[in-house]
Amino acid sequence: MNAWLAMPLEQKLQAVAKEEQAVFNLVFTMSFNMVNLALPPETIRKFASKMSLSVSLDDEHMTIIMKLVGTMATGHQIAEELSQDQLVQQDKDARLKLAFGNSESYLPIGLTSNMEGEGKEMFRSLVNERSALPTDSSPSMSRDTGSLKVFSRRLNLRSKWSERVKQGPVSDSKGDRGEYVVKTFSGHEEGVLCLAYCPPTMGREYARLLTGSCDATLKVWDVLSTQCLGTLTGHSGWVTACEVEGSDTSKAISGSYDHSLKVWDLVKCQKIRSLRGHKGSISALAIAHSGGKLISGSYDNTLLVWDYRHGKSSMTLSGHTAPVMCLYWDSTPNPAYPHMVISGSRDTTVKIWDLRTGKALHTLSGHSDWVKSIYYSSMGRGTLLSGGCDGVTKVWDLYDGKCLRTLQGHTGTINSVSVSEIGESKYVTCSADCLVKVWNPLNETTQTLSGHVDEVVACTPFLSSTLATASYDGTVKIWNPNHSHSLRSINVHNGNRISCMRSYENSLLTAAWDKTAKICEFTLDFRPN
Fold first, then answer.
1. C-alpha distances in angstroms, 370 versus 71, 160, 416, 499?
2. Which end of the chain is flanked by fewer CB atoms within 10 Å, N or C?
């Protein structure tokens, strides 16, 4: 102890960083061995997450582990399928070239090779590139964004590969009926993770699109011409969330892996101020319709309430024991619960907070794994849906915090939950098992929507009583919730993984790992039935 106290600060930081790296190496090595033993991906993910939490692995290393486990499992699955088909090595090479193209063709981790240990060496190279980033022990310490770019590019194992091996090509309806046009916004150097839409206002005739990327920048776009109006720089890590103020669409907020939030002027395309207070990466944002209020969720297990016009945090919501993954705040005029904030966490709970006191009104327990998505509906006395990595969706009564029902049927993580309130209110869930399910709470029937060939990551009610879904297979599908087949299938991102989807009036907005964002704009008289 005396030796540690006498040690210079710089030497202490180096010792801590060395210890963290040793723990990280141990967890990823064990995960790699589990993949080679062909254990189920969900089992490996649960093991890695629990190990990471038990040894207090920092949030960025934990995220790396989760992504690499998924990548390795995918590569291992492909290897088994190719082996079963008894494909010769020349055919394997041809398929790899077909899937990944001429640029950056490489062997997916876990795929069989003539070179012993090649998969593990590639895995180590990924880790070395990413872990070469300096630690965040000092606010003034800069980060190597180049390593971030290489890492994110290598992680984008395109779903097109598994599609072509297992399912054949995905159909693309190209809008030949004149029902929609697809606009492409291209300019980021790495995958796009988040986006926000700025509608036209009285003083501005054109709409704008805001996108955030793994290249640590945001871009502002003219929706009509698809031209980039400006690039917003200042973050030193992946931009994971962005929102536009409801009453003043010239202002936007972004959150990043660099632990900070930033306030932007979208007219001048410049930073107004930085908001610092979190000790972990930003995972979720909710911005007030007016008044300059903002709530952020973080990997440091807390939520912060901000007055972002003055750059100050006014309240800390503490109680979760693991990273906050999602949040909801109804700040629109005349909300049902104006002082209520809802958060979901990796500690398997959902908390309902009262902003007047900063205390949790209810802690909703029942999931056996991370809570990944939540959705609030005003139906009844107020209904909340929560989806977890345990493949279960729970329906809660906000008034007393009781679980009304448990929806079981998926075999993978629930990535998104929603409520279709057109006609009979129905619950909608989409999952890593490639399926979408529509649940009727009145007669307790379930409709399964199948057609995606990779994880379904987002779902939202859309035009003409339809439902829109987006998937890692690069497609957006339009469904009639009462039928099991899709009405339209649009190959928006050519097989590249879609990271998020939003809807605005007659448009669907998507962001993907192909470094682009797209807007699929439908005609006002669109009738898919």
1. 20, 28, 13, 19
2. N
